[in-house]
Task: structure prediction
Amino acid sequence: MMAIRLHSQTCPKLIPRTTKAKCGELLPALSTLPLIDFILITDLSLPSSPLSFSLLVTLSSTVVQDLGSDFRDSKEHGGDPTTRAAVAMLHQNPVVSDLIATGLSGTIALSLLRSFEETAKRHVFDQKLNRKLMHISIGLVFMLCWPMFSSGHRGALLAACIPGLNIIRMLLIGSGMWKDEATVKSMSRFGDRRELLKGPLYYALTITVACAFYWRTSPVAIAAICNLCAGDGIADIVGRRLGSQKIPYNRNKSIAGSVAMALAGFLASLGFMFYFSTFGYVQKSWEMILGFLIVSLASSFVESLPISTELDDNLTVTLTSLLLGNLLF
Result:
């Protein structure tokens, strides 16, 4: 017995219209298969006619190429080689689709960024709150856009270009080569452009690395971004409002803030696990949930240490999530 996977988008192109009727006995309803399907063929014998042989050779060639591509993608990105993840294709041409996805995702991220720059300029929120709301939302909203990209290296690298451009932007503004007071005001604690060379730069680096090296099939990418964005962002908001009881080994951190960070990072990770599992990118499991919990607890503990204040919690939280995530997942 052997299993052959067929995709309805390729089947009509694979078999000429004149031969569909003749292959009905071999593969019924060939052109109406769902996007992902398996056909079990038993006792496969040699074809009895040149037409059947030509059909079988063409079919086998296409299936082998398809399975080979899936297997390479699964090895490179940690997925299951027996399944293909759903992709919200924006165009029939996959390259054009990825370019459209890049444009849409970049536009969404830039619009969100500009909106927070405007709220900072108009003093809609307190500067610290405005900065943390942006910290929470940018990475998580961008991750919601990942299903628009194709599987494999091209989709991952094109997605990584969006935060990658922000790395260049942080370097230019932080070094003083590019003047952008709105960005400095919305992203810095004290209005110093050089602050962009630390936390905001590490933030953009984290999302770029998560895209380029882990991508959406890896729980490591989910854990790293969720603990950095949701966890660290919520920790500061809660800590400033409910953080009267300080941590004994670091008086700059509160127990409420650390608890909120662990909880927010964990819940965000669970949310994206379920979100990506609906597309087939990850297989949700209790082991993955436990892994997310451990990473969130560890990230929260490291964020509370004095070294995180001395360096930058965007750096220490990211390194903890990546290192521990690689060990657990």
